[in-house]
Every structure is written in C-alpha cells, then in structure tokens.
Amino acid sequence: QVQLVESGGDSVQAGGSLRLSCIASPDRRNCMAWFRQAPGKKREGVAVIHTPDGRTTLASSLWGRFSISHDNAKNTIYLQVNTLQPEDTASYYCAGDAFGPGDYGPVECILNQDLIDFWGQGTQVTVSS
C-alpha cells in the first residue's frame, strides 16, 4: 500500500517561508502533487511534478511564490512556499497517482484531483498577519 507522509507545516507570520516535504513509500509516484484546502473552501491544486523528468505545473495564482521540486533518491517531493499571506492558511496535502517507477504512466501530469489515487494526511500551514 502506498503511503504519503507530509511534514513541514507550521504557524508563521505573513511574509515568512516554509518548505513542506512529502515522503512516498514504498516508492515515488509518476505524478506527485500538492493540494490545499482552507477552512470552508474546496480543495484546490497547488502544483504537480512528473517525477521521472522533473517537469512541473504550478497553479497560475501562485507563480513567483510557490515552487515544487523532487528528490527521487529519497522518494520525496517538496513545496517551497515564500512570502506567505494569511490567505495561504490551509491544510496542505500530498498526492500521487497509481503509477510507480517502471510503470508506463502518463508522460504529462495534470493538476487535477480526479487523477489522484493516493493522498497524505495533510500538514497545517497557518499564516498570521
């Protein structure tokens, strides 16, 4: 069974930065992503990465502040979040598709929760003004 475990969430002041991590076991997924859900709002896509080659897609509203990266040797993806604002307060979830290393997964990852097969438990980010 695939498990995704997030870490790195914290309470920070506006303008601060965090790096969230997600470790996949037993192996990374072909497409791995970050989603977030704020209180009373729908879950939204943040970023997705194609782990075989590192190609990424980021939600346009977050360009310039957020970035996604990976370390395949550690089966880990990261979300660097900078210049945090109170509206970034949310639970951040790691997600992955059904394809592992060696599987014939998609060559392009789409930031769409309908394409997700596995979810982490989430890590909380709280930004105060």
Describe the structure.
With 129 residues, this protein is mainly beta. It contains no helices and 11 strands. Strands 2, 4, 5, 6, 9, 10 and 11 form a 7-stranded mixed sheet that branches. A 4-stranded antiparallel sheet has the order 1-3-8-7, with no helix packed on it. A hairpin with a 6-residue loop joins strand 4 (31-37) and strand 5. The mean pLDDT is 96.
Biggest beta-sheet profile? 7 strands, mixed
User: What does the radius of gyration come to?
Assistant: 14 Å
End-to-end span in angstroms?
Answer: 40 Å
**Average pLDDT for all residues:** 96
Entry summary:
The chain has no helices and eleven strands.
Keyphrases for this structure?
single chain; 129 residues; mainly beta; 7-stranded mixed sheet; 4-stranded antiparallel sheet; 0% helix; globular
Please write out the topology.
Layout: E1 3-7, E2 11-13, E3 18-25, E4 31-37, E5 44-50, E6 55-58, E7 66-71, E8 76-81, E9 90-96, E10 118-119, E11 123-128
Parallel strand pairs: 2-11
Antiparallel strand pairs: 1-3, 3-8, 4-5, 4-9, 5-6, 7-8, 9-10, 9-11
